[in-house]
Design a protein that fits this description.
Elements (H helix, E strand, L loop, with lengths): L17 E5 L5 H4 L12 H5 L2 E4 L7 H4 L4 E6 L6 H9 L6 E6 L16 H11 L2 E4 L2 H14 L9 E2 L6 H4 L17 E5 L7 H7 L13 E7 L12 E4 L3 H8 L4 E4 L8 H8 L4 E4 L3 H6 L4 E2 L4 H13 L1 H15 L4 H14 L5
Parallel strand pairs: 1-2, 1-3, 3-4, 4-5, 5-6, 7-8, 7-10, 8-9, 10-11, 11-12
Helix pairs in contact: 4-5, 12-13
């Protein structure tokens, strides 16, 4: 365990006491239910073998918080101001490192403050309280850097880290019953289309996947919409398969029965869908608003208004099996960077760059 103000001597195999803390009392119980497998942000406690706790349970005790080497706060609507509270309790001299991250898409940032009139003030205070801030895609990183610049609130150096959340490739690389996905011989000619609850942009996506060519002379591609929340957005040209918003394990199993993927984003995000599809060996065509699409499948990433390019890429991964396999293998190789086995080293490398507290 770290015993000084710096964690720079810590190695991957060193025991690091990690805490993800939240004030979200309404959803906290679900975080502890083992049958509801979670991903994204909630993979960090798994890779550190750490704790997830309600802030209220510490009852204002800085001493209880100081037993941790890393305290992690997610900058979301219910937790704006939390990092500042943690800093006030642990003080400036503690060996504990306070880390905050932002998960909101910058295009929908105002929604974070919808029910919190002091949200922006609390958000800026949290940024200045942290030893490290990180975003999961470049637009988030740039926004946090800009906010710290204009408010002259700068605690950390260098600037905000780019640190996508890890993916449990170790689980996704194994079929059931050891892992979560369907065996490869259970996969069919199905195109998984990721639906986004923020803007429900189904109409453009459904036009781009209309009347797809067959993968074989007499074959048919089924379209599957994953994660829909409002059927009103699907009044025309309904997909053949629909997977409602559900828990992660069921979603992964459904996704693993598909051969192809498509994500039409109009707002910037990292894209956990692309990461998980890539880990499953599924190539994904996307707009370049999906940051990890540009990293994992650069040949399949296009500007949102390049409709011809998107359609041609969709047709090629369906009709050109050799091309699909090459893309799938490349994506699986790149995804190793974001595996659990590499997560701690990625996290600690960014944290150690920040050195001593300023």
């Amino acid at each position: 365990m770290a015993t000084s103000a710096s964690l720079s001597t810590l190695k991957r195999d060193t025991e690091i006491k990690y805490l993800l803390v939240t004030e979200g009392a309404s959803y906290f119980p679900s975080l502890l239910r083992p049958e509801l497998e979670r991903a994204g942000l909630y993979n960090w406690p798994k890779v550190f073998d750490g704790d997830v706790e309600l802030f209220q349970r510490f009852k204002g005790s800085g001493r209880a918080l100081k037993k941790y080497d890393i305290i992690h706060c997610n900058l979301a609507g219910g937790d704006f101001g939390l990092a500042t509270k943690v800093r006030n309790l642990i003080g400036d001299d503690a060996h504990t490192k306070l880390v905050v991250n932002m998960d909101y898409s910058v295009h929908y940032f105002s929604k974070a403050f919808k029910n919190n009139p002091n949200g922006l003030t609390d958000f800026l205070s949290d940024l200045s309280a942290a030893d490290m801030c990180f975003g999961v895609e470049p637009n988030q990183v740039a926004l946090m850097d800009y906010f710290m610049k204009i408010t002259k609130k700068k605690r950390q150096s260098p600037e905000t880290a780019l640190l996508p959340h890890p993916v449990n490739i170790e689980v996704l690389s194994k079929p059931m019953p050891e892992g979560l996905f369907a065996p490869y011989d259970n996969r069919g000619d199905v195109l998984a289309i990721q639906y986004h609850r923020y803007d429900g942009n189904w109409e453009i996506a459904r036009m781009l996947v209309h009347d797809l060519p067959p993968p074989q002379e007499h074959g048919t591609v089924l379209r599957a919409c994953l994660g829909f929340t409002d059927q009103a957005f699907m009044t025309v040209d309904m997909p053949e398969l629909v997977m409602p918003f559900t828990d992660w394990a069921k979603y992964i199993y459904f996704l693993s029965t598909c051969l192809y993927g498509f994500e039409y984003r109009t707002h910037s995000a990292a894209s956990r869908f692309i990461m998980e599809a890539a880990a499953l060996g599924i190539p994904v065509v996307s707009t370049d608003y999906s940051y990890l699409g540009t990293e994992i499948f650069p040949d399949l990433s296009f500007p949102m208004n390049d409709y011809d390019g998107i359609r041609e890429a969709l047709e090629r991964i369906i009709t050109d099996d050799a091309f699909r396999v090459r893309q799938a293998r490349y994506g699986m190789e790149i995804m190793q960077k974001y595996s659990f086995s590499n997560a701690i080293s990625r996290f600690m490398e960014e944290l150690n760059k920040r050195g001593e507290k300023n």
